[in-house]
Amino acid sequence: MNPRPLALTAALALPVALVLGGCTAKEAASTAGGKGPITVGATDTECAVSRAEAPAGKVEFTVTNTGTKVNEFYVYAEGDRIMGEVENISPGLTRSFFVELAEPGAYQTACKPGMVGDGIRAAFTVTGESTAPKSDDQRLAAATAEYQRYVASQSDAFLAETTRFVGLVKAGKVEQAKALYPTARSYWERIEPVAESFGDLDPMIDGRAEVVEEGMAFTGYHRLEQDLWEKGLQSDSATIADKLLADVTELVTKAKAVQLNPLQLANGSKALLDEMATGKITGEEERYSHTDLWDFEANFEGSKAAIQALRPFLKEADPDLVVAIDERGKALADLIEEHRDGDGFVLYTELTPADLKALTEALDAFAQPVSTVAGVVAEG
Question: Whole-prediction pTM value?
Answer without folding.
Answer: 0.71
